């Protein structure tokens, strides 16, 4: 995206009146945010993973295709992702424009997010408060279900089975006649998780069988799009996920038979039309998030209702100048005994995004957002970014990038109202991020590739962290400052030898330093790496396709991670590898795909969280049947 010649999108041209003199424009492609993200590192994940493995969660996708560090409490257990040395609560997750993080926890469990097969997954690295609002101090994950009215009829079913009682059933369908578009997807995944593991918390490190770790998950998604006419469209989307999990106990601890029930319902409606020489979009959404936890001694029930609305207007002021203005409102309603009763909170924000291309080789973006939350004073969050093509030939494009951005995070409901420990006097986190980089694109005959290198610096004031209190429980406090810096390198290549033969490969590397000042034994303040932040993370993948066969592999190396603030204890570095072999069979409009998958190919013993066992080598076999026509 950043390395291409960018200007105003095609929608902008439609917004210009017929008697306007048109200047030369260049088309932008990408999600609704990318055209206003000049200077930022953005990427779109490979959609083949979602199509070949319906029901795969975002946790699994990011583990295989990004250098982000995934913290998991076990296979199918809570999994969180963080950008650039921040925490899970500093990663914004948006679904078709709406933030879906739990208001109680302020984060998203990526094990509870199985995107539908027609979804696209975009990543934006670095602070992006002006674009994505509260919580995006480290980065953002954007899920979108775009409307497509291309005539299509398609039905697909898949059955998968594997080690440790793994089983998955998936079905999806799509229909479009040029005016009405429907898509549905259903998945059910379950596993016994009775794998063998080495108990490193017990003398002699014996092998044991994992107990109390079974889970089941059901997901249902439905999209409906209707084109009223050429200028107006309405969309309705729904996404329901129900997950029942036994909570895997940590090594060396007693099995308290903990269980967790999650139920997430997300509904939204959208209208988009050509109004006032531009494009106006109105969205409304209702979310219901339920989280119930129970073990031998604790029962905690949580239900949160979220109401959200957005109104925005995008207009081309000139052929090379695009402006979008908008407003957003949120209402949270939570009722938990740990809060002492019902809690309600309202949030509002207004934003303005500007894209200006003064020269064909130069793209600029300037974005602003101001939020209002009762009892808090979130800062104004500006973003300024630029792309400049310093070298461009028919085969090569070299682009210099730079971006400076401010972001914020309002304390969560748990941070303020949890009893005991909640602190209503917390200050909102706010941070500045700076980044610069080079992006190179190559295209010649059968070979295409993109390589991008980025360096960044991040500073966060009033970082919120839960710490032990003198009364014997934990409480959140504002740390004075957390500083981070690092570098990222990403390279992806594709070689199309013939119509039926291709080779794709990619690699990504992240160097991350994220530190806070803590006193040592002599009361001298020194910089300490934040816990569970690996200094080095590398991910690589490759796929070869020959006629109806394909072979793919992915591998990742994760450096050691400290498991405490004092940097006295750590988890060892580890490397993981996975492999898949598949073949397609076609007959007229029918297609069958048979795929074998091996996870943890080298049978590595590892932990992403201290004393949380992860599965050994495992196998999966799946069969998919698809029928499709394009009238």
Automatic annotation (TrEMBL):
Cell compartment(s), UniProt: Cell outer membrane
Gene Ontology MF term list: siderophore uptake transmembrane transporter activity
Domain TonB-dependent receptor plug: start-end pairs: 39-140
A single cellular component GO annotation: cell outer membrane
Pfam families: Plug, TonB_dep_Rec_b-barrel
Gene3D superfamilies: TonB-dependent receptor, beta-barrel domain (2.40.170.20), TonB-dependent receptor, plug domain (2.170.130.10)
Key words of the record: Cell outer membrane, Membrane, Receptor, Signal, TonB box, Transmembrane, Transmembrane beta strand, Transport
UniProt membrane topology term: Multi-pass membrane protein
Domain TonB-dependent receptor-like beta-barrel: 177-601
InterPro entries: Beta-barrel_TonB (IPR000531), Beta-barrel_TonB_sf (IPR036942), Plug_dom (IPR012910), Plug_dom_sf (IPR037066), TonB-dep_rcpt-like (IPR039426)
Domain of life assignment: Bacteria
Record keyword Signal present: yes
Keyword Membrane: yes
BP terms from Gene Ontology: siderophore transmembrane transport
Family to which this protein belongs: Belongs to the TonB-dependent receptor family.
Name under which the protein is recorded: TonB-dependent receptor
